[in-house]
Amino acid sequence: MTKVSSDLKEKIPVNERQQRGTSLFPLQYNFCNTENPYYDLWLHWHTEFELIHILSGSYNLFLGDHEIVLNKGDSCIIPGKIVHGDAPEKGASKYESAVFDIELLRQHGFSPDSFINDIILENISLQNYIPAEQKDIFCTIEFLFDTIREQREGWDIIASGALIVFFGLLKKNHFYSEKKILPAQKRARNKKLDLVLDFIKKNYGNDISLEQLSVAAGFSPKYFCRVFKEMTGRSPVEYLNWFRISRSCALLRESNDKLLNIAQKCGFKDFSYFIKMFHRYKGMTPLKYRNMELKANKASETESAQKENKIC
């Protein structure tokens, strides 16, 4: 199991290709606090499935082309290849997630399993939102995450079994529907959105115009703005600024580079505009953000030294 702190999430690209867990047990556990100033989950996708479970507060998740409001105890199952991330107003929440290869179920389950096969082949569509009131599923999800967190003897086998039970309960409670074929126009729009997000990821440090983004999508600028807003909840400029600020956060933490240089590397040619945007998305200045990180690192080093002294 690999725990990923919320600050590392800012390094995740639009298409995540990182190893989940191990090759033998492809499951990764994440704990996230949306109020952590280092937290940001931009729009991304991966081939693995993801199960999100809300521990406290309320979290607004952007999924596909709409928003889902998740409150304490609620969960959300996200199939592979679905664009997701924070909604524009993400809310205040602590949540955990398990990212796993769906093939894990077939490795530890029985064959043939038509339900799992239909999920993998995208013949059926799962109901993403799972309310806390669905007690049988809720209890299974809590048991699953307890097992992953505690990692006691045999936890990987138990976690695999809990996932199988979870999907079995989705089937039992009819938390799925026959897959509706998306209209050709909508399928094309989804693919074009992926192209634009990838273009931003690769070119955020350069000047990017609305015309360039619309060309990447193959739309006119006016139509592109409307479609992008409908699909992401943000205008193209808002998303670009948000992405750039997220990348600047990583540089503030990982380098001693001057603020002006960081602003320029992240595509902000106007330093005052960089300061303004940083404060809008982080609620503080870049300098305060960097100082908070330095204090956190120093505290961590002190704690580690104290533990070593106790051992000695």
Structural commentary:
With 312 residues, the chain is an alpha+beta fold. The longest helix is centred in the last third of the chain and has 26 residues, at 286-311. It has helices at 103-108, 114-120, 135-150, 155-172, 184-203, 210-217, 221-232, 236-254, 259-265, 271-282, 286-311; strands at residues 3-4, 27-33, 49-63, 66-71, 75-78, 84-86, 93-100, 124-126, 129-130, 176-178. It is globular. The strands form 2 sheets. Strands 1, 2, 3, 4, 5, 6, 7 and 9 form an 8-stranded mixed sheet that branches. The relative contact order is 0.10. Residues 1-13 have low confidence and may be disordered.
Cα distance spanning the termini: 29 Å
Secondary-structure content class: alpha+beta
Number of strands: 10
In percent terms, what proportion of residues is strand?
A: 15-25%
- What's the pLDDT, averaged over the residues? 84
Instruction: Summarize the main sheet.
Output: 8 strands, mixed
Helical amount? 40-55%
CATH superfamily placement of the largest domain: Jelly Rolls
CATH fold-level label of the largest domain: Jelly Rolls
| Low-pLDDT sequence parts | 1-13
CATH class of the largest domain: Mainly Beta
N-to-C series of helices and strands? EEEEEEEHHEEHHEHHHHHHH
The dominant shape is globular
CATH architecture of the largest domain: Sandwich
* Radius of gyration (Å): 21 Å
Number of helices: 11
The number of distinct structural domains comes to 2
